[in-house]
Amino acid sequence: MTAISWNDTANSSHGTFYSGSVQVFADNFVAKNISFMNVAPIPKPGDVGAQAVAIRISGDQAAFLGCGFFGAQDTLHDDRGRHYFKDCYIQGSIDFSFGNGRSLYEVTRLISDMQISFPVIA
C-alpha cells in the first residue's frame, strides 16, 4: 500500500488546521488503498500544540476506499463537506476524528492507541 507521511504539529505549522500531511480542498476527491500518516510523536496528556493531522478534508463528496489514517491527536480532520469512508482504518490517540464534515463510515475501524480513556471523536 502506498503511504504519504509528514510530521508537522500545531506548534510547527501555525495551528492544527495547517499541520496536515495531506490537505484536500477539491470536490469529488477519491483515494483508494493509500495510507495517510502524521508521524509526529504521540503527545502526553496535557501537551499543548501537539495536534498532528494526517489528512484534512475540506472539499465536498470525497471518497476513501481501503485507506488508512495514522497519527496521534487529531488524526483525521473531517473539516467540512460530505465524505464516504469504506473499508478504512483510522488510528490515533486523542480526538482523532474531528471537524464539521458530514461523513458516512462503512466497515471502517476506529482504533485508539492510548492506554487511558480519552475522547475518540470530537
UniProtKB/TrEMBL annotation:
Alphabetical list of InterPro entries matching this protein: Pectin_lyas_fold, Pectin_lyase_fold/virulence, Pectinesterase_cat
GO molecular function terms attached to this record: pectinesterase activity
Coiled coil stretches, renumbered: none
EC code: 3.1.1.11
GO biological process entries: cell wall modification; pectin catabolic process
One Pfam family cited in the UniProt record for this chain: Pectinesterase
Compartments it resides in: Secreted, Cell wall
Domain Pectinesterase catalytic intervals: 2-111
Keyword check for Hydrolase: yes
Top EC class for this record: hydrolase
Cited Gene3D superfamilies: Single-stranded right-handed beta-helix, Pectin lyase-like
Metabolic or biological pathway: Glycan metabolism; pectin degradation; 2-dehydro-3-deoxy-D-gluconate from pectin: step 1/5
Keyword annotations from UniProtKB, A to Z: Aspartyl esterase, Cell wall, Hydrolase, Secreted
Top-level division of the source organism's lineage: Eukaryota
Protein family per UniProt: Belongs to the pectinesterase family.
Protein name, as recorded: pectinesterase
Protein source organism: Malus baccata (Siberian crab apple)
